[in-house]
Amino acid sequence: MANLLEAFHAWRLRSRLFGEAKHQVDEARHILKKKGEQIPRAVVTEIEGAVTAVETARTAEHLESMRHALVVLDERMDQHLAFARKSTAREYTESIVVAVAIALLLRSFVIEAFQIPSGSMIPTLEIGDHIFVSKFAYALEIPIWQKKILSWHEPQRGDVIVFRYPLGTETDYIKRVVGLPGDKVEVRHNEVFINGKPMSRELVDPRFKYHDTFDRTGELWLEHLDNHGHKALHQPQQLTNFAPVIVPARSVFVMGDNRDNSNDSRVWGTVRYELIKGRALIVWWSRDPDRGGWSPSGIADWFASIRFRRFFHLVD
Asked: Which of 40, 49, 93 is nearest to 75 (CA)?
């Protein structure tokens, strides 16, 4: 075991030394190429000689010689090229700026995090779930103008989408697509009909227990939209009906999976394509937001409220 640790330590030191050598040689060559006209020829020759010494030691894999050559090269660069070298603070700042820029680009155009604030999508999504949303699923949107400039896919029945609320676009909603452009959607006694045909479904559990601000019981159904299966909740004592509507062009009819406790297209109408932000992908974090506090017992309860079973749960 001791021999393995020694070998690993030696490998790490070797890798670090080779990495430093590459970085310093690249930096020296970059400065000479960019600022060569401002540097005296004698200095250029001296720096090139130091670079050659590092490269020779690196090729021969002579670590002690490489270490010495690096010290010499670093001293020569500090002596003659300090005006062009980046400070450690500048390198860190540039790295942070690049990382932030990449994160902002990803958030704006590719992936955005979203938190589930209500129980309207139970059992698919629970209050306190944190999900990633693919903003690249249907189109490319310029966030500042909220305008789509390229589209490649249209929403399909069964997709779980995040969109800007049609009656107040500063708020984001998440629901399931039930009806597509041209579809006739209606609800008769809790049963969804699309184009005059009932949505295929079967009862899974007549007394399914779940938590939606408080403990409740309902019917758990497995529903099928085209070839997409998903679970939905119904309250049998609430006989819901909804008069037929035709979904307009470039719009979708959406409903929550917690069918009788959802504010959706049955209340405020359809969702236009331009309001859709993306498709829900995966739950990456989840905990019960009603639990926890600042007391020792509250902190323990906060950790106990983490739903590990929800981690990396695909949104279907």
From this structure: 49
Residue 158 φ/ψ, nearest 5 degrees: 100, -15
Domain with CATH 1.20.1270.10 in the chain: 2-85
Predicted pLDDT of residue 97 = 79
> Tens of pLDDT along 105-120?
766 677 889 999 999 9
For residue 37, give the DSSP letter. G
Cis peptide before 244 (omega within 30 of 0): no
Q: Which two tokens stand for residue 244?
A: 């037929």
pLDDT in tens, 123-174: 999 999 999 999 888 987 777 677 777 778 999 999 999 999 999 989 999 9
Q: Tell which CATH architecture fits domain 2-85.
A: Up-down Bundle (1.20)
Numbered ranges of CATH 2.10.109.10 in the chain: 104-314
Q: Does the annotation count 175 as an active-site position?
A: yes
Give the number of C-alpha atoms closer than 13 A to the C-alpha of residue 60, restricted to the C-beta side.
13
Strand locations in the chain (E): 111-115, 129-134, 139-142, 147-151, 160-164, 172-179, 184-188, 191-194, 197-198, 200-211, 215-225, 228-234, 242-246, 251-255, 271-272, 276-286, 313-314
Q: Which residue of the set 15, 86, 87, 120 is catalytic?
A: 120
The residue with tokens 């589209």 is 151
Distance of alpha carbon 220 from alpha carbon 239, whole angstroms: 15
Q: Which of 35, 95, 175, 197 is catalytic?
A: 175
pTM for this prediction: 0.71
Encoded amino acid at 66, one letter: M
197 has catalytic annotation: no
Q: In the structure, what pLDDT confidence band is assigned to residue 203 with cuts at 50, 70 and 90?
A: very high
The DSSP annotation for 255-313 comes to E-SBTTS--SHHHH--EEGGGEEEEEEEEEEEB-TTS--SSHHHHHHHHHTB-GGGTTE
**Per-residue model confidence as pLDDT tens digits over 160-169:** 999 999 999 8
Domain 104-314, CATH homologous superfamily name and number: Umud Fragment, subunit A (2.10.109.10)
